[in-house]
């Protein structure tokens, strides 16, 4: 089942630079998310239009921003809240990596609202705000310089959400699209291998008394590829045509 993007909200707490808000909108739209909540933003809406300039073609996300007075209000309907933290505090709180984080969020978002919360640009989330979260997510980075720009942090986690959606949704579509006919049964594939062996023997390409690894390698080739019923029929048709041509080949009666 594909990820329900509409049930996943991004929450920014007391963002100070309006350009970062615009950049977050752009990062979200790149990855199919559009639910953005701002808790007590500074300098927003901004008359200078920095947020609009940085949002580029994600101005629809910018226009639909919800501004609230508290983190509690931003996550009121959410059943699962994850806070992003670059600084791992000493409080004993569950800390997960981005992929584990989005896996949990996506599963819960099938039926309920969830939230990813990002703190202030200069000092992140307070201990009290982190205590409001079910878990904290930490993005692995250079230990000597682990502080990410807020838009970059949002982009990383939104990318993981979108990639999970691809794996859950597009990957499920890939098999039906790739196999436009039903998969061949084991009996059908075994019949193909038997046909290969008899045809290649008749063509003089395979010596059953000195088989080496020919048939085993052919098995490995087709087992690795996977075959549908039409592909088996095509291959057997080629073998049949080769056998027929071999039988009809003129016999050389010239004597040396």
What does this structure look like?
By secondary structure, the chain is an alpha/beta fold. It has two domains: 5-172, SPOUT methyltransferase, trefoil knot domain (Alpha/beta knot); 186-248, Helicase, Ruva Protein, domain 3 (Orthogonal Bundle). It is built from ten helices and seven strands. It has helices at residues 18-30, 50-55, 59-63, 71-74, 98-109, 127-131, 150-178, 186-202, 214-225, 229-248; strands spanning 8-13, 35-39, 66-68, 78-84, 95-96, 113-118, 135-137. The chain has a seven-stranded parallel β-sheet with strand order 3-2-1-6-4-7-5.
CATH architecture of the largest domain: 3-Layer(aba) Sandwich
Q: Kindly report how far apart the N and C termini lie.
A: 73 Å
What is the string of helix and strand elements?
A: EHEHHEHEEHEHEHHHH
Order of strands across the biggest sheet? 3-2-1-6-4-7-5
Radius of gyration: 30 Å
Q: Determine the structural class based on helices, strands and strand pairing.
A: alpha/beta
CATH class of the largest domain: Alpha Beta
The number of domains: 2
Mean pLDDT, to the nearest integer, reads 87
Alpha plus pi helix count: 10
The amount of beta strand, in percent, is 5-15%
The unreliable regions are none
Q: Give me the CATH fold name of the largest domain.
A: Alpha/beta knot
What's the main sheet like? 7 strands, parallel
Total E-strand runs: 7
